[in-house]
Amino acid sequence: MAGRFTPRTPTPHQPAAGARVPGRKRTWAARSGPLDLALTLGPLRRGPGDPTYRTTPDGAVWRTSRTPAGPATLRVTAAGDTAHAEAWGAGAEWMLEQLPAMLGELDDPEAFEPRHRLLAETHRNRPGLRLTRTGLVLESLIPSVLEQKVTATEAYRAWRLLVRGFGEPAPGAPEGMYVMPDARQWALIPSWEWHRAGVDSKRSDTVMRAVRVARRMEEAAAMDPKDAEARLRLIPGIGPWTAAETLQRAIGAADLVTVGDLHLPGIIGHALAGNRNADDDEMLALLEPYAGQRHRAARLILLSGRVPPRRAPRFQPNNIAVL
Hints:
This protein has 14 helices and seven strands. It is α+β, with helices and mostly antiparallel strands. It has two domains: 88 residues, 2-Layer Sandwich (TATA-Binding Protein); 212 residues, Endonuclease III, domain 1. The strands form two sheets. A five-stranded antiparallel beta sheet has the order 1-5-4-3-2. Strands 6-7 form a two-stranded antiparallel sheet. A hairpin with a 2-residue loop joins strand 3 and strand 4. Helix 10 packs across helix 11. It starts with 23 loop residues before the first strand and ends in a 19-residue tail after the last helix. The N terminus is likely disordered. It is an enzyme of class 3 (hydrolase). InterPro entries: Alkylbase_DNA_Glycosylase/TA, DNA_glycosylase. Its EC number is 3.2.2.21. This is DNA-3-methyladenine glycosylase.
């Protein structure tokens, strides 16, 4: 009979105060102007309390990742166009090699040509905006699946519980930070633990299907956006919304628009045409002048704060953990 599978027991992973073990370091200067860590890396954060992402009062951003070389923690600060990074764990070298891409070096903000005053002003006021490219698919795919058809609060809670329960303490990181589970560990999470985290069987089954072909999923990081999207969508349960949310982060897909979103068409319709009732088709038509840069245009609209006033009641989450 199979034994009961339980979450990993947290183990001490942080040296005593003042005794932090030095990590590998790298200093890197961007060629494309000033760095803004919050704008560039912010999309990688999955809500408050994300155990894989933290900011500290000194301006540092801390991230944990499950890299091809193993678990890793990255701490990065920026001053002007220069980033100072330190990394710990088996994947530290990989994280430091990936640093320029993660901070937007492969992005081309100069390719964006504003066609609306709102976008021109926001683009000018956000000179540090770059599209990140983590080079890792599963770490963006799994939380994106958890965010399907539920409130952000529900999805963020599920991510926190599952990473803390089945991941591992992050090397060199502040207490409370974790590296997400590896593919095998995700596959071993029993159904009742998904239920306790508030994740229904449709979403958990999608994660299970993805992690069973984890290597094939990670290969998408080296593909062009069209092929990468096709690769992800081979998995039942991964549609255009999830693929876009994943690849915007994993490969910095500047043109991949999040279709199928409850709020985004209305926000873009309101900002560009005064139509808060826009659907996906109208959103795509409004973004057509930005072909090649449609995701960046959508990001700038969201950053502009030009959103329609709320008139419908907030969607009430269903807590399946208590059903």
